[in-house]
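Summary for the steering committee. The consortium agreed at its last meeting that each partner would contribute one worked example illustrating the joint modelling workflow. Our contribution is presented below. We chose a case with several input lines so that the handling of multiple components could be demonstrated. No manual editing was applied between input and output; the record is shown as generated.
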Amino acid sequence: MTQIFGLVLGNGMLVGLPLFGTSNILRHIYFPNASTKFFIYAPTYATLYKVQDTIFSGWNSGYIDLLLPLLIFAALMIPLGRVWCAWLCPLGLPQDLLTRLRRRLGIRHIEIAPHHSDFIHSLKYLGLFVIVFYTFALGAPMFDLKGMWNALPVPYEQFDPNRAMYIYGQIAIGLAPPSTYVPTMSVLITILYLGTCFAARRFWCHICPQGAMMSLFNRTAFVRLRKDPAKCTHCRICYRVCPMEILKVYEEREGTDVSSAKCVHCYNCVDNCPEDGCLSVEFLGKKIVQSKYRCQCEERGVRT
Amino acid sequence: MKDASGGNERQPRFMNKEIAEGAAAHRDRIREAAAEQVQKHLAAMKTQSRPKAMEYFEEMADPFGKRAEELKKFKEEGGKVVGSLCYFAPAEIPAAFGAVPVRFCSGIYEAVHPANDLLGDAGLCPLVKSTLGLKMSGASPILELCDLVIVPTPCDAKLKLGEILQDMVDVHLMNMPAVKTTEAGRESWIGEIKALVRKLEGKFGQKLRPQMLKRSIQTYQRAQAAWRRFSQLRKNGSIWGRDALLVAQLTFYDDIGRWTHNVEKLCDELEGRQPVAPEAARVLLGGSPIIWPNWKVPLLIEESGGIIIADELCSGSRTMYDPVVVEEWTMEGMLVALAERYIMPCTCPSFSPNLEREQNMLGRIREFGAEGVVFHVLRGCHLNSLDATKADRVLRRQRIPMLKVESEYDEGDLEQVRTRVEAFIEMIKARRESPG
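What follows is the complete predicted structure of the assembly.
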């Protein structure tokens, strides 16, 4: 539910203009979403887009324009970490819907083994590094990449699955003219996105470069996942329900802080932990939610 | 009996005619002795303040009594009964096929004797000997109804019991990983769970559909929820531990839906009840399984001024405490959830390392406010004996007193154990005045 709210308000990709109108002030509030100037009626611009854009054009101004987006980003990330990913991200909702569809069809997700998981998770940092380095090279005179200015100006935007997914949506409901340009790469990546996220839970979150930027703050955010090891029975449920394959929550036997850079804060572990008060979410040391045993047979939606 | 590998008639390895005849001669004596043991312990458990809902559990308590009659009728009407020999065989799976799962670890003293004749090893764990003797003599009606017996192999005694039983009944062995913390160990156990499904599919000529398994898992989830509620209500000492243990014990062979209903009824009655013995020393009972009607140790503790406030026995709380949490109701998702539920949180000493046990004990001591631990070890159970040594060191560091009690399947050691338990309870009570 919050995801739909976030999708509409934060990104406005489908219904942007009719609700808000476009304002230049609003477009300077950068969210970790994926909307860019290539979207019709995008009310806000994405941090990652702005970062690429300013690195590209900032050589002469000493990258001073980077300050504002990074400050806004830090102001969001220092308290919240990757909370965005599970609750507001426009690429999160389709992943959850795909998971729901897969379960409805009775197909089991592909399990990513713990030793593969680390590798896949590290790809997002590689992606982020490539994007930053490429845009820097694009703008810095000594690399002389002027030939690429038209071919590949803002690299991530050419690949972004958002582009194809939401622009075709906008065309379908008549918001965008049918002739709107969508790069071929973006279409291909979208197909890849739909396929992988159908098979594996939240696969995109593993490799998302915007997520990589947020992950840098995740370990020190004010939102923390806590564990009372004395209450843990090591039943491994928290690991089984975790879409990001975080072993730490299950394995920790001494410490109380089980926050992880990989975590997207979906809190499936807290939700499913059968021991009262074993796992909890804290914000600045104040408990927000904690685990509580409840019979799965009493959940809504489970027919008996 | 068919050999596992092919169609040839299987030659008995352990049994022979002479032993079989000798065992059969024990049958009536075992039945009489068992009935006597059941009645004696039931009588000792009775108190004035006992909740009325306990009557149901008392009625079902005789393993040769009412439930056996019910199952006999069920079998005559074409029903299937599947036995299992350990906590580790998931009851949900046979139940999904519409079979009645029964766990038949035995606590009958008299049944040990025929097994001694066959084994030629008197040092083996009495629980396994008693179970074997029960099958050899044909004394237990429920056991005789089993179409198949599932034998997980956590310890040496059960490992061999699985082989010996093949001389008498269709056995499905499940290879237990001794190390569960590795991916390989966990995956091998999931493989065993799938093999069990295939075995039952072949046995019953019926394919297991996800819907069947889902319904079965949900039935057990409700039982687990009822047991959780019961555990919470037990915290203030509103029911004797020996009664609580009997309630847990009946999951072995009772109809699980009816059991759940009766536990809920018992909970309703316990709501807001006063402690049965406010001054009693609050004891956590741990160690080797205590199987009804082997109620020697629980009765000794509670007759000596203690109350069993919690336990960590695989025949007690552990049978229903941990819930199965299914993330995805696909076949694979359910089987993985089942497989992990039965081994991951388990504190059985057959696992190494077994950090779960000490953490579980400490957690329960804190949660239930236990003042001391009685660690029960069946003579011949080396794994629990070693865990007792470890538990003693861990608990000592936390300044929690522990008593290791070794016992056999007879009453010979009764008075000696009583003296030690009494002294231990006295010591706990004395500590209240001068802690530390």
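The two ends of chain B are 61 Å apart (CA to CA). Residues 17-45 of chain B form the longest helix (29 residues).
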